[in-house]
Amino acid sequence: MPKSRAIFGLLASLFLLTACQTEIYTNLSEREANEMLAALMESGIDAEKSSIGEENFAVAVANEDVREALAILNDQGLPQSNRQSIGQVFAKSGIVSSPFEERVRYIYALGEEVAQTLQQIDGVLVARVHVVMPEAPELGQEAKPSSAAVFIKQKVGYDLDFLVPQIRRLVANSIEGVKYEEVSVVLVEAQPQSQSEHAEDAGVVETLPGLRVATGSSMAVWVWVGVAAALVLGLAAGAAYLFRMNSGLRARLARADQADG
Q: Which tens digits make up the pLDDT trace of 175-214?
């Protein structure tokens, strides 16, 4: 009986720990999952990484931390959007494409390739490069210059204005036909989540009706609730067993008295 109660208590605790977690992102690469795990742990949120298949991972947090965790990952620009390289965009599919389709795909691939490079700069959350390459002019028409527009969303506290000339030079040198003066760069600073919006959630949560505890302690409360529930069930089972034993003993004593009489 003691051994079975201990096993039941352990299983109940594990069940409560699992039931109190929510997977916030799935189908992640191991690198993406590790980056998200590090960002959450640096912000004081307990998170877990689990494998859900071949080279696929998921990140889970406690139910009460879901909202704050999503806000933190959004501020960090995680997970980063997957970009297609030129090789992926121009992968052979066995279907003959028109010259226009090939041109559109080529321009798109150029923008994606340069944006991926820009996103390696410290402080860059999101980078987008839009390339405009006018078609060759017909006879007698004036040729229009190619151009590029760069959008960068930067992290809070970073000032990338001093890098604008280098960014323009990088884009101009990466895309044939685009001159330095034809590259425009727009920098936008990410807006942090309002602290007052999550102040109550970050402070205390109502774990049970009438019971409010600190956010970081709610998981421990549920564990103790599970252990207490397992002990209560174990004690109830033990009491029932003793009751049956006592009933049987009294019945045997009664039969023995009747036999002696």
A: 988 999 999 999 999 876 544 444 444 445 544 555 555 5
- Residue 88: exposed, middle, or buried by beta-carbon count in 10 A (0-12, 13-18, 19+)? exposed
The dihedrals phi and psi of 250, each to the nearest 5 degrees, come to: -65, -40
Query: What residues does 124 pair with on adjacent strands?
Result: 154
Instruction: Give the integer Cα–Cα distance in Å for 80 and 213.
Output: 34
Quick one: CA dihedral 77, 80, 86, 89, positive or negative? negative
Chain segment 101-138, per-residue pLDDT in tens: 788 888 888 898 999 899 889 989 889 999 998 877 67
pLDDT tens across 42-59, in order? Answer: 888 888 888 887 778 989
pTM for the structure as a whole: 0.54
Token pair 């996103």 is at which residue?
119
Taking the C-alpha atoms of residue 34 and residue 55, their distance in angstroms, rounded to an integer, is 13
Location of structure tokens 């297609």: 84
Query: Which H or E run contains 44?
Result: none
**CA dihedral sign of residues 14, 15, 21, 25:** positive
Determine the 3-state secondary structure of 43 from DSSP.
Answer: coil
Q: Which amino acid is it at 260?
A: D
Beta-strand runs (E) in the chain:
21-28, 47-53, 56-62, 124-132, 146-154, 178-189, 204-208, 211-214
* H or E element, residue 251: helix 218-260
Pairing type for strands 146-154 and 178-189 reads: parallel
CA distance 173 to 121: 17
Single-letter residue type at 49: K
Cβ-proximal residues to 41 (8 Å cutoff; 6+ apart), any chain: 47
